[in-house]
């Protein structure tokens, strides 16, 4: 059972930015994440396998007031490099990763555990297994994860109504379609290309945050 403050977590999950080095160009990932944070991103997920070989970026980001999320398949590498740094991170697992309750045993009760879900059944089970929040999608078609199943707004709303933990929507979300998620019950959105593929990351992040806040009202 988790002892994470879920009310605070709901606020932190407003704008969840997921990294992807596909759009780095001449920039470093550190530089891009800095821009996203300046633009108002409230949660960062580092979905980067190669970066685990260098922990200096983690030290710099973790000195800031942002939440760092990391996919479970990277966890063992982080633990072997720096236990203290890992202890200040949270973990997100997909349906094809280790079971949420097994991950919870590793994390302990004071770490944030996120789980991906596409159905009400998966969502309810994830909550029972100790998930602190759910990432539900793809709510729109997306090129970032071509194998992601579509989740209708009706299913998204049903998931939000079936669980007592925060839910964020993910998949194909951009500034032009955020408002269509209004009334679904989510507490925030997760995006990849809408931030990191933008020409002006900071400006794009500001727009996304403003529209997400409008959608939630």
Automatic annotation (TrEMBL):
Domain (Thiamine phosphate synthase/TenI) ranges: 15-195
Keyword Repeat: no
Reaction(s) catalysed (UniProt annotation): 4-methyl-5-(2-phosphooxyethyl)-thiazole + 4-amino-2-methyl-5-(diphosphooxymethyl)pyrimidine + H(+) = thiamine phosphate + diphosphate; 2-[(2R,5Z)-2-carboxy-4-methylthiazol-5(2H)-ylidene]ethyl phosphate + 4-amino-2-methyl-5-(diphosphooxymethyl)pyrimidine + 2 H(+) = thiamine phosphate + CO2 + diphosphate; 2-(2-carboxy-4-methylthiazol-5-yl)ethyl phosphate + 4-amino-2-methyl-5-(diphosphooxymethyl)pyrimidine + 2 H(+) = thiamine phosphate + CO2 + diphosphate
Chain ranges passing through the membrane: 61-79
Enzyme class: transferase
Protein name: Thiamine-phosphate synthase
Enzyme Commission number(s) from the entry: 2.5.1.3
Function: Condenses 4-methyl-5-(beta-hydroxyethyl)thiazole monophosphate (THZ-P) and 2-methyl-4-amino-5-hydroxymethyl pyrimidine pyrophosphate (HMP-PP) to form thiamine monophosphate (TMP).
UniProtKB keywords: Magnesium, Membrane, Metal-binding, Thiamine biosynthesis, Transferase, Transmembrane, Transmembrane helix
InterPro entries: Aldolase_TIM, ThiamineP_synth_sf, ThiamineP_synth_TenI, TMP_synthase
Binding site for Mg(2+): 97
Amino-acid positions noted as binding 4-amino-2-methyl-5-(diphosphooxymethyl)pyrimidine in the UniProt annotation, renumbered to this chain: 45-49, 116, 145
Organism: Anaerobutyricum hallii DSM 3353
Pathway: Cofactor biosynthesis; thiamine diphosphate biosynthesis; thiamine phosphate from 4-amino-2-methyl-5-diphosphomethylpyrimidine and 4-methyl-5-(2-phosphoethyl)-thiazole: step 1/1
Example of a GO MF term: thiamine-phosphate diphosphorylase activity
HAMAP family in alphabetical order: TMP_synthase
Coiled-coil blocks: none
Cofactor: Mg(2+)
GO biological process: thiamine biosynthetic process; thiamine diphosphate biosynthetic process
GO CC annotation terms, alphabetical: cytoplasm
């Amino acid at each position: 059972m988790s002892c994470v403050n879920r009310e605070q977590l709901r606020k932190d999950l407003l704008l969840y930015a997921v990294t992807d080095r596909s759009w780095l160009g001449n920039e470093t990932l550190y530089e891009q994440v800095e821009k996203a944070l300046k633009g108002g991103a409230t949660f960062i997920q580092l979905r980067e396998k190669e970066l685990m070989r260098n922990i200096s970026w983690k030290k710099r980001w973790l000195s800031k007031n942002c939440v760092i999320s990391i996919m479970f398949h990277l966890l063992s590498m982080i633990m072997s490099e720096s236990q203290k740094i890992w202890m200040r991170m949270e973990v997100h697992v997909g349906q094809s990763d280790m079971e949420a309750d097994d991950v919870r045993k590793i994390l302990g009760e004071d770490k944030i555990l996120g789980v991906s879900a596409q159905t009400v059944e998966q969502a309810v089970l994830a909550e029972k297994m100790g998930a602190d929040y759910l990432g539900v999608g793809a709510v729109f078609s997306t090129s970032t994860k071509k194998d992601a199943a579509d989740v209708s707004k009706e299913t998204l709303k049903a998931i939000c109504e079936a669980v007592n933990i925060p839910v964020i929507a993910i998949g194909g979300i951009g500034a032009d379609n955020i408002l269509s998620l209004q009334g679904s019950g989510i507490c925030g959105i997760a995006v990849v290309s809408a931030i990191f593929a933008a020409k002006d990351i900071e400006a794009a992040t500001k727009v996304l945050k403003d529209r997400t806040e409008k959608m939630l009202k």
